[in-house]
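Figure 2 data, in text form.
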Amino acid sequence: FETAVLEQKNLHNLACKAYVSWVRFYSSYPKEARECFNFKELHLGHFAKSFALRDPPTSIGGVGRPNFKLANQNRRPNRRDMQYQPKPPPKLRASVSEFSSGLEPSKKKKKTLV
């Protein structure tokens, strides 16, 4: 039966749709039943094989765990991978504020108790 599914494109498409439908059904159990039917503990490849599919679950309609290598390609490049570009020197700012008179404030003498 598996060779017939591999040879006939129509049967292969039907098997893929049936597998995707089964995965969606299994993952939508109510919260109370998830203790018995834990979706995260399933080996999806074994269930794909039961539908006479030889393809990995990630290639069958995108069902299954995500491919992290492909997901990482869309991220920003690493700083180490980027070419080194020296930072421009910081601009020197005036030492006097535009709001000050330019005179330093005088320190007040502390009063001592006698």
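Caption note: The helical segments are 2-7, 9-27, 44-50, 68-73.
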